[in-house]
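Incident review: delayed structure delivery

Summary: a single-chain prediction request sat in the queue longer than the usual turnaround. Root cause was a stuck worker, restarted by the on-call engineer. No data loss occurred. The affected request and its eventual output are reproduced below so the record is complete for anyone auditing the incident later.

Affected input:
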Amino acid sequence: MLEQEIFRVTDPGWIRDLARAHPWATLISHTPDRGLVVSHLPVLVDDSRQDTVLLGHLARTDARKHELGSHDVVVVLQGPHGYLSPVWYGETPHVPTWNFTVLHVHGRPEVLDPADTYDVLSATVDHFEDRFPEPWRLARVESHAHRIAAAVTGFRLPATKVTAKAKLSQDEREEVVVRLAKALESGRPYASPELARAMRDIRRKP
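Output delivered after worker restart:
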């Protein structure tokens, strides 16, 4: 990923917040026999650690294809993103562009035993269910869940490298960003209120 200083993010809080809010991830491995292997899965931030550590799980067959634990991988997390029309700038010259937030987490996964794998599955359910007034818990189907968990491989990924990028029009004047954000909140094609919030928030950071 091209790293430009103006778009680089190093704030650990921002990184964790993006991972928590956008947990649907892409896991990429390069294996000797299969070459590139790509899977999609939910991941969690391990809040028991001060550094960046992700928790996740894969079907055991997919974990074998990745040769999970035998080499480094990259996990990609995509935050708010969207298309910006030149019309929205209210001035020329401008061309179409794409604003985005993204996080790359590098490291070697640690394969978990069955008990810890089950804990990751339970924590994953809790993460998503906690938004409901009456959250559903894995314990409600515990025996069935344990049978399913036998076909799952959990992992912990301590980050050896984290690259975070927020391309959110930081190179534009304040009044231009305001116009872009209003366009993204207008309900017109390509509207994205979440992206508009991210563009405003990044300018407030020191």
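Verification: Helices lie at 12-21, 60-66, 114-129, 142-149, 174-184, 193-204.
Action items: add queue-age alerting; document worker restart procedure.
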